[in-house]
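Milestone 3.1: sequence recovery, worked example.
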């Protein structure tokens, strides 16, 4: 009893210091996408909507058989699909963060920051939805089975699932979008949306990293095995749901053939691995990838 209180006090103080830093950053660097982005600017003819190596069929015979206009159209639908998957996960995340804050002290900076992040995610979801509508693309939601898993995920979430899942998915999207921001051959609106998300997600990722590190220290035995399984499932279904099969139908491709080509395309696999590399490193360092559930990471194309 004499040593527990100082440890808890230091943990609380560390959380409060981190929350104060994140709140200051949010006050300085936040966007209003409805006002700060040029939604009425026409697309630039000939420009892709993502870096070419992120196009799932790039480097394959199917890609080479498309006209330049079809390649642009496919890249647009793929970016729209990834954005829709991002909204799906952000809706889950917002509910998990509410569960995280529900029983905590509302007067703390930690809870104020958690609520601030939820507000950020609300704006991001609305921004992605507006981008998809502006592109003229359909809402590419994950399969009914995956959506049901999402409902279960947010209902049973604990700290390991909340922050481990957040870290993986947000790092994956962040990695893909950072490349778009730097690539001047990408459509201006796609780059602008990516920039807003990258800037604001940087503080969300930092928060998730800090909380996950604190949580992982206390995971042993069955709790560790449960966390490994939950995170492996999140990573597998989030990664494999990024690009909806119907994006290929939008440019007249055979869906089954295109899905098979994308699944085995080394360029697309490397793009995903590169985007998720930072999250994978931390998850492995903290022991949250391991045991039998490692196979799910392999099947998702994230590990050999």
């Amino acid at each position: 009893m004499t040593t527990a209180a100082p440890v808890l006090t230091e943990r609380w103080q560390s959380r409060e210091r981190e929350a104060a830093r994140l709140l200051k950053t949010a006050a300085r660097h936040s966007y209003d996408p409805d006002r700060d982005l040029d939604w009425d600017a026409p697309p630039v003819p000939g420009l892709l909507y993502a870096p070419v190596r992120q196009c799932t069929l790039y480097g394959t015979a199917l890609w080479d058989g498309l006209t330049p206009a079809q390649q642009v159209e496919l890249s647009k639908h793929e970016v729209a699909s990834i954005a829709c998957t991002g909204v799906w996960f952000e809706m889950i995340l917002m509910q998990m963060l509410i569960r995280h804050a529900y029983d905590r002290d509302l007067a703390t900076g930690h809870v104020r920051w958690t609520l601030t992040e939820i507000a950020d995610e609300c704006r991001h979801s609305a921004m992605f939805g507006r981008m998809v509508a502006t592109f003229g693309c359909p809402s590419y939601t994950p399969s009914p089975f995956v959506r049901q898993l999402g409902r279960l995920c947010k209902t049973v979430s604990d700290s390991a699932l909340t922050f481990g899942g957040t870290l993986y998915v947000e790092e994956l999207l962040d990695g893909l979008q950072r490349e778009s921001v730097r690539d001047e051959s990408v459509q201006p609106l796609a780059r602008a949306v990516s920039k807003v998300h990258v800037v604001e997600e940087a503080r969300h990722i930092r928060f998730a990293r800090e909380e996950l590190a604190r949580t992982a220290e206390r995971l042993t035995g069955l709790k560790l095995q449960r966390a490994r399984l939950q995170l492996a499932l999140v990573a597998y279904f989030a990664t494999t749901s990024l690009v909806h099969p119907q994006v290929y139908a939008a440019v007249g491709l055979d869906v089954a053939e295109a899905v098979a080509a994308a699944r085995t395309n080394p360029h697309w696999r490397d793009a995903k691995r590169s985007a998720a590399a930072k999250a994978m490193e931390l998850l492995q360092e903290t022991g949250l990838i391991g045991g039998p559930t490692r196979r799910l990471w392999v099947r998702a194309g994230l590990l050999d």
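Residues 1-5 have pLDDT under 50 and may be disordered. DSSP finds 13 helices and no strands in the chain.
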